[in-house]
Amino acid sequence: MTELRNVEADLSRFRLRVFAASLVVVVCFLLLATRLLYLQVYRHADLSEQAENNRTAVVPVVPNRGLILDRNGVILATNYSAYTLEIMPARLSMPLDKAIEELSKVIDIQPRDKRRFKKLMEETKSFDSLPIRSRLTDEEVARFAAHGWRFPGVEIKARLFRNYPFGELASHVIGYIGRVNQTEKKAMEDWPEDQQANYRGTEYIGKLGIEQSYEEQLHGVTGVEHVETSAGGRAIRKLASHAATPGNTVVMSIDIRLQKLVEDLYGDRRGAFVAIDPKTGEVLAFVSKPTFDPNLFVDGIDQENWTALNESIDKPLLNRALRGTYPPGSTYKPFMALAALETGKRTPQQSISDPGYFWFGGHKFRDDKEGGHGSVDMYKSIVHSCDTYYYLLANDMGVDLMHDELVKFGFGELTGIDIQGESRGLLPSTHWKRKAYRKPEQQKWYAGETISLGIGQGYNNFTMLQLASATGILANDGVKMKPHLVQKVVDPVTHQQLESAVHQTVGERIAKPENIAIIRNALVGVNLEGTSARAFQGAPYTSGGKTGTAQVVTIAQGAKYNASQMDERHRDHALYMAYAPADNPKIAIAMIVENAGFGAQNSAPIARRAFDYYLTGVYPSEEDMAAVRKGQATTPIGKARPAAEVPWPAGMAPPAPAAAPAPVASAPALPASATVPAVAPARAASAANLARH
């Protein structure tokens, strides 16, 4: 018997299922409507901003780096634009090595370029855009444009590069710029937010000299561009922009022609020369020889050049004027004499009998003149540089009294000059020795160690900057001025002066005017009838000075110094300090020519030519300059020339002053952080050392 279906029951179940399904559909539509309402109404502003951000990008605009000028407006650091081939490793579609190999078939990429690129990769993040070739020619740019589609992640960019038009000239003081390394990036994280924002997009900062110390003024203010981008992140068009403000122009106090003259007179010799205006503290010349070409660092120094500079025995990267420390030799004697007057240990008329040596503790401290100088008062002790006089004086004063008096001149102290990296030097005392050594027997100060301090030997070690500053104090009647290298900072757009160097007096007058007058009279005597008289013969002005010759190694008891039998780097240093004109000093200098011998023969002649140029506008003859470089001329020879008629640089007319330069594009370029040797060559001498003159 067939069972009949219950149609009503089936319809009822069907209707229930349809209702349940409809309910689910309605709920889903309600959820979608609710979500749509939420997104379109409540999240509209937020999502609209996100969409706009996906469509647009904010790109920092790195400002033009400011110019560096000398005191007369000569441009010492400027900028130029060039094309660079850059790789962003994270965006490459092929292995990096293969990409570089293929690129080499399109654009000339040398092995040194590859090595430099790999060094950059080690110092930065893989997604950064890194240059592998700089300064592309128009032909190379066109060639890559035809093949660029093959190399996603590789671009040609227009970059601005720093340029130092005079190459090696004054490179230690001007400095150079370099790519920001990881250590510097980490340090930037601690900067205030506004300062961090100003450096977004900045890849290069100052690494040395004025470029480093005046980074904030030279950098400028970063601008921004709002650009529309494609789905691939490439800029399509510019929507809006806020222009960057170019960096300020830094005007140095350096006279670059004086700087060049002194560097030329040094030739291939090593040493340092600092010239200061004693009344203002402005540094007129800041020479360190040998020097280096900062342009080597512009697009990243290659390994060969870096090795040559960094491993050279002559240490061309060492700023000897700022960081090199040396025994001052007999240039120390005028300051010792002034200390003796101030403390009452000597009077100007008080004389000693000099037999040519001084016995102390069974040790014979020799004078430079065999048989001695006879009867010696203070004037004669300076003019003829009598060592015995100062052996006795040092013994009478003692190390701590000497320290307390000589520190007033800035010996063993930082001058506070406006570039980084200055060495403190060493002015010894019993307190210093107790702190410097660990063993009790080393901490003890022995009386014999005091004797040679009087002639600028022993533990004494100072920079030429310190000695020049101390000489400026004598020239400025006992008033100490803080040395500085920058004269003013100028806005490149409005040409308004933003900052001006403050001629800052440091402390009180350090000595009585009548005592300073006694020392200055003796220093004039040195250049008229003493050790440097030949160098200043016929000078149209009167000057004061003091020669010095400082030992590098100890000479054994009973042995005589013979330069021809010594290694060149063990020979004596030639020093000189001076100021001119004597009655109203406008320039004070301190200098050293390493391992050159007598200061009177090798240093004073350079100072004479520098004074002639700065005070009278006279340039030495080519014959004279060649002789001075070899230490073969004291009094000027040949026909001097008006400085204005001397082509400079060679074959070119003198640079025209640029008192109000227009804004110039800035662009850094050194991809490697090159560190400068921080320690000067050691200069040691025992208590028996002798300072010759």
What does this 3D model show about the protein?
The protein is an alpha+beta fold. It has two domains: 60-252, Penicillin-binding protein 2a (Domain 2) (Alpha-Beta Complex); 256-554 and 567-642, Beta-lactamase (3-Layer(aba) Sandwich), CATH 3.40.710. The chain has 24 helices and 23 strands. Strands 2, 3, 4, 5, 10, 17 and 18 form a seven-stranded mixed sheet that branches. Strands 12-11-21-20-19 form a five-stranded antiparallel sheet. The chain has a three-stranded antiparallel sheet with strand order 1-8-9. Helix 11 (256-266) packs antiparallel against helix 23 and helix 13 runs antiparallel to helix 21. The longest helix is centred in the first third of the chain and has 36 residues, at 7-42. The chain is elongated and about 150 Å long.
Mean pLDDT over all positions: 85
Count of separate structural domains: 2
Proportion in helices = 25-40%
First-to-last CA distance:
143 Å
Q: Tell the overall outline.
A: elongated
What is the CATH topology descriptor of the largest domain?
A: Beta-lactamase
- Total of helices: 24
CATH class of the largest domain: Alpha Beta
Unreliable stretches covering 5 or more consecutive residues: 650-692
GO molecular function, one term: peptidoglycan L,D-transpeptidase activity
Enzyme class: hydrolase
Pfam family, one: Transpeptidase
EC number: 3.4.16.4
